[in-house]
Amino acid sequence: NITNLRWNQINLFNKTIIVENTKNGYPVGIPMSEKVTIVLKGLKNGNGSYYVFEKDEKPLNRWYVSTSFIF
Fold it and tell me: Do residues 3 and 65 lie in contact, with contact meaning Cβ atoms separated by under 8 Å?
């Protein structure tokens, strides 16, 4: 669930997102597009939060996050 994405799951250097809770129990690295990498780097600047998409230290709801990324 993208709304629960945490900064410690993102590797901006390798451009991957690590999904820890998978059906088979093994973490999986998902490659990020250049556009996603740029957006996340922009969010990271000055953001000392736990979740990538949060307000008041709680994850944002799914609707808000999904509508924010319509290009």
Answer: yes
H-helix or E-strand spanning residue 66: helix 62-68
Query: Any idea what DSSP says for residue 49?
Result: -
User: Which secondary-structure segment (H or E) carries 19?
Assistant: strand 16-19
Could you identify the residue written with the tokens 């922009």?
42
**Which two three-digit tokens encode residue 67?**
């509508």
pTM above threshold 0.70: yes
Assign residue 3 a region: left if phi > 0, alpha if psi is -120 to 50, beta otherwise? alpha
Asked if 40 contacts 32 with a C-beta cutoff of 8 angstroms, the reply is yes
* Separation between Cα atoms, residue 12 and residue 9, nearest integer Å: 10
Phi and psi (nearest 5°) for 27? -65, 150
pLDDT per position as a tens digit, 48-66 = 778 887 777 776 766 666 6
